[in-house]
Amino acid sequence: MQYTLLGRSGLKVSRAALGTMNFGIGPDAPCGEPEARRIIGAFLDAGGTLIDTANIYTGGRSEEVVGRAIATRRDSVVLATKGSGPLGAGPNDRGLSRLHLTRALEGSLRRLGTDYIDLYQCHNWDPDTPIEETMATLDSFVRSGKVRYVGCSNYTAGQIIESQWASQRLGTTPFISLQPHYSLLAREIEAEILPACARHGLGTLTYGPLAGGMLAGRYRRGRQPDPGTRLHQWLAFNPTAASWATTLLREECFDIADEVTQVADLVGATPSAIAIAWTIARPGITSVIIGPRTVDQLTDNLTGIGLSLAADLVDRLNTVSAPTNQPVTGLPITLPTAA
Questions:
Q1: Taking the complete model, does pTM exceed 0.85, yes or no?
Q2: CB 3.0-4.6 Å disulfide test: which of 126, 225, 264, 308 passes with 232?
């Protein structure tokens, strides 16, 4: 496993991060606790350090599972979680206000069974709360010792800049990371968000490298997703994600997925490993969050983290996935490549 610094900080993290959105308790969980604990153990044994969860994943059960799984190995884990998501129906049960964030943090600490969180992240932007209030609240968490570093997730370039400027004005703890969506099927962050991160000291922990399984070769043209697959679940049970799932089933996405499969055949690897290998090698990417539901999937995903693709194969993938509004070579400024 390789390690690198997270943003403009001294915190070193593994290039692979373990995402735990699927971890839960009971038969209805996408990944039940026994297998989740095996995955976490195998990830740590492989040298992984960064484990990412959130207080809203499987209704808080993900945090509980993670907390129990790492209890005897806490000092070897860079534990990341997120707050701001809805925890109830009340007007103060969501967002980035001091009231809600304080409640959210205390709940996460309790479920995780720990005294501190290494990386506490704002899950989404809150337009109703002054950014100064949010950054001051996060700073108070750091000063209390309950949080070591702070980051954000799903922010635009403008929101990143506004947050860092507010932190500078107030003399408070700045963000050191952004968690954005990024894959061969979603390269929008290359235009503005990655340059903003580089300029303002944020590392990137990208999620969704397999695009819901599309880049793993799990779907076929003209056929509905099989039961049990991520896109089937989104289409059937998650109205919020259904439109995005439908977008992934376009012909252009299948063209990119087919190219990934062809490259995988040439290399002798799985399509999943190829998609992850492309993502981790991109300029400005610190770590890639993988979300396995089995130990076998974890092993395959970690193969992608350590796989180096030949330049001609990278060019093929860059060309087929190039955003229509920018050149294949991509980024408007030169970004540092993670060590």
A1: yes
A2: 225
Amino acid letter, 183: S
Spell out the domains of the chain, with CATH numbers in brackets: 3-179 (3.20.20.100)
Q: Which residues of 17-47 are buried (b: 16+ CB within 10 A; e: fewer)?
A: bbbbbbbbbeeebbbbbebbbebbebbbebe
Residues labelled catalytic: 57
Can you say whether residue 204 is alpha, beta or left, with left for phi > 0 and alpha for psi between -120 and 50 degrees? beta
Structure tokens given for 304:
């992608």
When pLDDT is averaged across residues 254-278 and rounded to a whole number, the result is: 95
Rg of the chain (C-alpha set): 19
pLDDT band at 53 (very low <50, low <70, confident <90, very high): very high
**Selection from 181, 205, 200 nearest residue 49 by Cα:** 205
Write the burial class of residue 77 (CB in 10 Å: 0-12 exposed, 13-18 middle, 19+ buried). Answer: buried
Bridge partner list, 23: 31
Question: Euclidean distance between the first and final Cα of the chain, in Å?
Answer: 12
Long-range CB contact pairs, 59-62, < 8 A, 24+? 59/24, 60/107, 60/111, 61/23, 61/24, 61/25, 61/29, 62/20, 62/21, 62/22, 62/23, 62/24
CA nearest neighbour of 188 among 8, 330, 308, 75 = 330
Task: Tell me the CA distances in angstroms from 135 to 84, 96, 107, one per residue in order.
Answer: 13, 9, 19
Strand pairing category for 147-153 and 175-179:
parallel
The two three-digit tokens of residue 300, written as one number: 């395959």
